[in-house]
Amino acid sequence: MSAQNSLPLLDLSTARSSLNRTELQRGIRRYGAFRLLAPGIFRAFARAIPHGYSPFGSELIRGKRRMPKESVYFYRQRDQNTPSSEPPAELSGSIIEILEAWHPLRNDVFEVLSNEILNTTTDLTSEPLFEYETMALHYYVSHKLVTGERDYSPAHKDGGLLTILVRGMSGPDGLEVADLESTNEVDSGKIGLEASFVPVPVIADEVVVFLGTRIQRLIGDQARACVHRVSAFVQDKDCPIEERLSVAIFCAPPI
Fold first, then answer.
1. Span 3-12+21-50+68-251 CATH architecture
2. How far is CA 48 from the centre of its chain?
């Protein structure tokens, strides 16, 4: 079963029925994630990324090991956008266009989560640094995979409130989320070894939203941080996905 059939869909353009609210509540408890109908973000990504993108320097993750991906980060605080490196100006403008497509949805997403789905008295929009966002452009490429390595990105949780993930290919692209009900583990590494994972295919006009560890710490058991990974091998166990491109918007920094 794919997460298209498992992850619930949040459509802000229509009122939530009691059934849809229940589906969202169950999906968030089970996967820590949901789908969001966001054609503006999806189309901004499609317009933005073909603009002469080339990989940047490989990053070291927590100083432990090199991953088969290239990343460039953009930071936004209040009304100031300051790239952490110097990518091409055209690419910087395109990334900001994606961010601007997200902003009209941001408050509504957090209010629906607080008031209708998580039923928490915590006002997520009043969190310190609520408007502080980090954006990351991730490029995964198969020739950087170490022999025997199966994942572009191992199982992990994000540390902020929410992560908005936009992807640049159709169909399966290796993204998988853990079924948190299939394990009693809480550490993301152990969950990665023990839990069942379901693939999350790319669907036109939709983005995927992950709950992060910060929101779990704020409101408790109503929410669980999503454990997700990117598998390099999807349709062919012997032939990895040649390349993969995604943009992530990280809402509020980790506690």
1. Sandwich (2.60)
2. 18
Closest by CA position to 247, among listed 109, 64, 102:
102
H/E element, 246: strand 243-251
pTM value is 0.87
CA distance 103 to 111: 13
Count Cβ atoms below 10 Å from residue 50 Cβ, excluding itself. Answer: 10
- Edge-to-edge strand order for the sheet containing 196-199? 151-156, 228-231, 175-179, 196-199
| Burial zone of 40 (CB within 10 Å; 0-12 exposed, 13-18 middle, 19+ buried) | middle
How many whole angstroms separate alpha carbon 199 and alpha carbon 65? 25
Single-letter amino acid, residue 255: I
**What are the tens digits of pLDDT across the range 74-90?**
764 544 444 444 556 66
Other beta carbons less than 10 A from residue 54's beta carbon? 9
CA distances from 248 to 17, 107, 137, 160, 216 (A): 29, 18, 7, 12, 19
Say which range, 79-83, 126-130, 166-170, has the weakest mean pLDDT: 79-83
Whether pLDDT at 5 is above 90: no
How do residues 35-50 score in pLDDT, each as one tens digit? 999 999 998 888 776 5
Q: Are 30 and 211 in contact (CB under 8 A)?
A: no
d(CA 143, CA 44): 28
